[in-house]
Amino acid sequence: MHQIFVFSGTGNTWHLAKRTGQLLGDAELVFLSGLRHDAAVLAQGDTVGIASPVYAGGLPSLVKSFLAKVVLRRGAWSYLLLTHGGRPFGAGRQGARILREQGVALDAVFSVAMPSGFPPRLGGIFARRPEGRLAREEESAAAVAEAVRERRGGGIEGAFSWVTDLFHEGLLARRRRLPFRAEGHCTGCGTCREVCPVENIVMDGMHRPRWLGSCEGCGACYAWCPVGAIRVGRFPWGGEPYHHPGVSLGEMRGGFRKKPFRVSRREEGPFPGDVGGI
User: What H or E segment, with its residue span, contains residue 18?
Assistant: First the structure.
């Protein structure tokens, strides 16, 4: 069995992991946000993938925490599947180092450029031009699935890994402290709370969102707000909030994240009929 653990905010990483799982066949997908992180996690797959976006040139805090606790079966083949808006920098090497400290050897790293959903995203440059990257996603998923089936390793040493070593921790800490807020046209629907992967948002007595102290900086609240009411501080904004067009809000809601899902093989592409709870 193939098993892929996924962390995703805008849906980019979830969609790529899901399509890769379909092409592999007999694949189980597990949202990291649905797992307990105060205890070891036993991965059951013969191949085990960890699919993650790249934040601040490295891995999100939740992913690093998972890597420090995951236990693989003897003989399991492991890989990172990274999505990024520019470069993966040293995220792969960072993941390999964390696993190595647990006595696990990472076998491969795959990285795929996707549209950036990070707010405030420099005038929306990447998010306004998603078509090219999305068009290449299917080809990338097919290449990853083939490499996983054949257990072809490599790709761990990314270009400009020194950027991660020097700047990641400081930049990630700033990203996790972004001052999210809801503007006056917020309807109090609670979507932001439901899509937050770390339950960092609560609704106050006025049905307005309030952010707590464990933000991952994923921007899911901003990306999935149905009325575009979420902002970060006073940054200028360019373009519309981005989330992957092939992912539904229902997939990103909290309930979907709390149990594994199995995907079956389907050559011709997306999806949602091939996804079922187990």
Answer: helix 12-24
Whether cis (ω within 30° of 0) applies to the bond prior to 120 is: yes
CB atoms within 10 A of CB 253: 16
For residue 245 the two structure tokens come to 């067009």
The one-character DSSP state at 149 is H
- Token couple for 92: 């792969």
- The pTM for the full model equals 0.89
Task: Tell which residue, 169, 203, 151, has the closest CA to residue 58.
Answer: 169
Decide if 98 contacts 67 (C-beta within 8 A). yes
- Quote the longest CA-to-CA distance of the chain: 54
95: left (phi over 0), alpha (psi -120 to 50) or beta: alpha
pLDDT (tens, 9 = 90+) of the chain, 278 residues, equals 999 999 999 999 999 999 999 999 989 999 998 787 677 888 999 999 999 999 999 999 999 999 999 999 999 999 999 999 888 999 999 999 999 999 999 999 999 999 887 765 544 444 446 677 888 999 999 999 999 999 998 888 777 787 888 888 898 888 888 889 999 999 999 999 999 998 999 999 889 999 998 999 999 999 999 999 998 876 655 557 889 999 999 888 865 566 777 776 654 444 443 333 33
Environment class of residue 278 by beta-carbon count within 10 Å: exposed (0-12), middle (13-18) or buried (19+)? exposed
Q: Closest Cα to residue 195, out of 169, 230, 153, 171?
A: 230
Measured between alpha carbons, how far is 126 from 180 in angstroms, rounded to an integer? 21
CB 119 within 8 A of CB 10: no
Cβ atoms of 24 and 54 closer than 8 Å: no
